[in-house]
Amino acid sequence: MSRLGRVIGRAPVAALRAEVTDDTLIERVAAGDLEGLGALYDRHAADLARVAGRLGAGAEVEDVVHTVFLRVVELAPRFELGRGCSARAWLAGITVRVVRERRRSVARWLRILGTLGREPQSYASPASSARADVLSALATLTTAQREAVVLVDGSGLTAEEAGEALGVPVGTIWSRVHHGRAALRARLGDSR
Predict the structure, then answer these.
(1) Amino acid 170: pLDDT
(2) Domains located in the chain, CATH noted
(3) Average of per-residue pLDDT values in the chain
(4) Which residues, including other chains, have CB under 8 Å from residue 162's CB and lie 6 or more apart?
(5) What does the pLDDT average to over 102-130?
(6) How far is the C-alpha of 65 from the C-alpha of 62, rounded, in Å?
(7) What is the pLDDT of residues 30-64, one digit of tens each?
């Protein structure tokens, strides 16, 4: 049993994670319950890491996920239960925003380093050839297309959830996914 599960008067964390809805966990996080945050993290961290990786977070995936859950603590009191947005879509939206912020931050640092006459070194480990090809092809999409494709095709969100996460209508999501898929097929040489 985990240390948290041994807390007197509390159910083991594993039982908490299996029985409680995401909305209830977010309510608990809003009330300051760290066990609820841990349960939410265990439930969604791997999916959010995949989203961040596919959006180009690279070696910073873990940092992005941790930043997302720090934001969850800040934003949980404002999460509107029953407004139609699933917790999964809400978390994906936070992840997209954190990756955007990090991308802008990296761009600023690269501009600063460029003024110093130095190029930053890449310390990323080499990825498999197929994965590198897909990530390279994703990088050629517009930001809007990449985010829509990653959320719908890469993370399994519905178009409605992706629309909620990105704050755009579902028709816009379908359009972005359609054009993004076509560009990926052209880039990767798929004749479909």
Answers:
(1) 93
(2) 1-125 (1.10.1740.10), 127-192 (1.10.10.10)
(3) 80
(4) 89, 92, 148, 151, 152, 173
(5) 63
(6) 5
(7) 999 999 999 999 999 999 999 999 888 888 899 99
Residues 58 and 151: their CA atoms lie apart, in Å, by 17
More confident residue, 102 or 9: 102
DSSP 15: H
Q: Which of 78, 178, 191, 183 is nearest to 137 (CA)?
A: 183
- Residue position matching structure tokens 């004749």: 191
Q: Would you give the DSSP letter of residue 150?
A: I
| Paired tokens of 153 | 């095709």
Q: Give 93: exposed, middle or buried? Use CB within 10 Å, 0-12, 13-18, 19+.
A: buried
